[in-house]
Amino acid sequence: MSTPAPLSERIVPLTDPADPRVADYTSLTDVALRRRLEPERGLYLAESSKVLRRALDAGHRPRSFFMAEKWLEGLRDVLERYDVPVYVGSDDVLERITGFHLHRGAIAAMQRPEPLELTEVLARSRRVAILEDIVDHTNVGAIFRSAAALDVDAVLVTPR
Fold first, then answer.
1. What is the pLDDT of residues 74-125, one digit of tens each?
2. Among candidate residues 99, 116, 98, the one with its CA nearest the CA of residue 107
3. How far apart are CA 69 and CA 89, in angstroms?
4. What is the pLDDT of residue 11?
5. Based on C-alpha coordinates, what's the Rg of the chain?
6. For residue 106, what are the contacts with CB-CB under 8 A and spacing of at least 6?
7. How many CA atoms lie within 13 A of 132 on its CB side?
């Protein structure tokens, strides 16, 4: 991996909620839109400093970061490692883009990694949860948090 450009050069101030560069973060409360675009573009969003740090530590790759300026310093170590834009705006502008208040700090648009081979996952897992045909994405987050709390080694998700 090449050395990233300095963080100061990658910070993009946001003033216009219609800025096309932040399309990954637009109208996040629209479930139908997310269901259509996330699988198609391989996009998922890691919301909160803790979640995005875990995703990055697991080898996932960010497309960009999105946050209020007050979160920059606390995430500086992460932001300096990746040569991607860091979109920063006021709480009002960010809320107008996403459709909700970012009370958990930062969001990162992440490229979904290639799926692992099932036999490899099962060979190294003792406890497995299977999510079959979950239709509400908010349930998936709750299930993953519960799986982590119960020491589940792997979570399998069906295509639907």
1. 999 999 999 999 999 888 888 888 877 676 678 998 888 887 899 999 999 9
2. 98
3. 6
4. 95
5. 17
6. 47, 48, 49, 52, 65, 66, 67, 71, 75
7. 2
Tokens coding 159: 């295509």
pTM: 0.73
In Å, how far from its chain's centre is CA 13? Answer: 20
Using CA atoms, how far apart are residues 129 and 141, in angstroms rounded to an integer?
13
Taking a C-beta distance cutoff of 8 angstroms, is the pair 128, 122 a contact?
A: yes
Q: How far is CA 143 from CA 24, 44, 88, 136, 155, in A?
A: 24, 17, 31, 11, 9
Nearest to residue 94, comparing CAs of 77, 106, 84? 106
Q: What amino acid is encoded at 1 in this protein?
A: M
